Amino acid sequence: MSGVVYWLDMAGVIVFALSGVMLACRSRMDPIGMLVLAAVTSIGGGTLRDLVLGVKPVFWVTDPTYLWVILATVGVSLVGFHYIHRLSRGFLPIADAFGLALFTVIGAHKALLLGTSGMVAVLMGMMTGVAGGMIRDVLAQRVPMVLREEIYATAAMAGGIVYVALHALEAPLTLAIAASLSVTLGLRLAAIHWHLALPVFAWVTVPPKTHDETAAPLSTPQKAKERVRMIRRERKKR
Questions:
Q1: pTM, 2 dp
Q2: Which one of 8, 20, 148, 231 has the largest count of C-beta atoms within 10 Å of its C-beta?
């Protein structure tokens, strides 16, 4: 089953690299910019995860295949630039949702293999899925998805909890992976489709109204009559 997890990891790299390429195209970046966004999106979260867990060297240094996959994804994207450019704006969040689901499973799985607690494994899964996209959005001068009202990190956390719970119950690995992917992907796609969001808590300061503002607003006919009265007063003064 380690081979299945490895290929899921590669699939996540491709999907996240593609989302980075698409955002680079929309931001009018050159090929180097495309490569940078593709790289930070696809391996940024896993790099932070390995650094936090004390894994040395990080995964893409041990296995440079990840770098070759990123280069290949960017190369294919450059060749088919016109096709990627025509993709609807809705494709980017969908591709990002698939990458989020895949990397959440990978991050939680690796943390559990290193002997961490369930809570740490959930956080590592969320970090693996979220951090790369945050770096991508910051470099493209966008507000990261995880900082918006949308359900994003919540979906990754829910998927991580499902995976860790099934692992603790000694469920088959295929079942744990499928359930976690379904929960994360289902929540994220539902949030995209129905515009679901968490409640926002903020202090709202309402400035006191002036005397003029407290008066009832005039309707359009009233404004017209008031204008006529003003014109008549001006004529009488003359």
A1: 0.82
A2: 20
